[in-house]
Amino acid sequence: MLSGSRRVTSGPPFSSFCWDRVIGLLDAPVLAIDLPGRGRHPGPLDKLHLADFIESAVEDIEGSEATDAVLVGHSMAGLSIAGIVDRVHDRLRHIAFLSCTIPRDGESMVSTLPPELAKLAELAVPDPAGVFPGKKVIVQTMCEGMDEDQTTFTLDVSIPEAYWPMRDPVDLSGLRHPVPRTWLKLLRDRSPSPEQAELFAARGGCRDFVELDTGHFPMITHPHELANLLNEIHSL
To answer: Containing H/E element for 84?
Structure first.
């Protein structure tokens, strides 16, 4: 998220709605971004590519009043964040990577998946309605530390994902811009694990780390703690 202000780019399997519990706790104006195929930007989920995600986010940012902003990327936003930074780095004061997935330059997200999830990805086919990993997979990989109500909420608001972005190669060259950055490491996350997150952080050029003792969705389970960290980053 961002702008004198901060901006939220949402990762799957949600729209920007997942940030609602955090937005009101932040000290600066917020723009919560919906990527194509969700929320304010509906689209055919079998046609969308990573380049469409980047272009849509850039258009939202450039169409706003966001300047001197903190860009926050969560989860699969790690695939698009370099491309976004390349286009709007002059509007940014900081980048916050929240448990992002960052493949090697030129590789795709599929290359980062554990064998059992990679096999599920191989079985998926393009579908206008999108690809949904299934509630069991979401619970196993993304709901660590949630109580029953939080898990129910997560499953209720989960939406299908576009087929191609996790298969498209990433271009990390946009991270060459010298924008300060922080990695928010989620200690109970399984996707990515804390160990895998160390590799992703290095690819993102992060030297500063902040730890949060949560699973994959702190915006749902620990909104106050997450908001406090983002407010601290914004004040740097």
So the answer is: helix 77-88
Q: Give CA–CA dist 214/74, Å, rounded.
A: 14
Inter-CA distances, 99 with 74, 76, 85, 157, 233, Å: 6, 9, 17, 20, 16
* Strands (E) located in 1-76: 6-9, 30-33, 69-74
pTM of the predicted model, to two decimals? 0.91
Q: What is the CATH number of domain 6-234?
A: 3.40.50.1820
Distance CA(52)–CA(4), nearest Å, equals 26
Per-residue pLDDT tens over the stretch 25-34: 999 899 988 8
Residue count (the chain): 236
Instruction: Locate 217 and state its tokens.
Output: 């969705």
**Cβ-Cβ contacts under 8 Å for 45 (sequence gap 6 or more):** 37, 127, 128, 129, 130, 131, 160, 161, 162, 163
- 75-88 burial, b if ≥16 CB within 10 A, otherwise e? bbbbbbbbbbbbbb
Ramachandran area for residue 212 (φ above 0: left; ψ -120 to 50: alpha; else beta)? beta
pLDDT in tens, 177-219: 999 999 999 999 988 888 889 999 999 999 999 999 999 999 9
Residue 228 CA, chain-centre distance (Å), reads 18
| DSSP three-state, residue 2 | strand
Q: List strand residue ranges (DSSP E) for the chain, in order.
A: 6-9, 30-33, 69-74, 92-98, 181-186, 208-212
Cα 207 to the center of its chain, rounded Å: 19
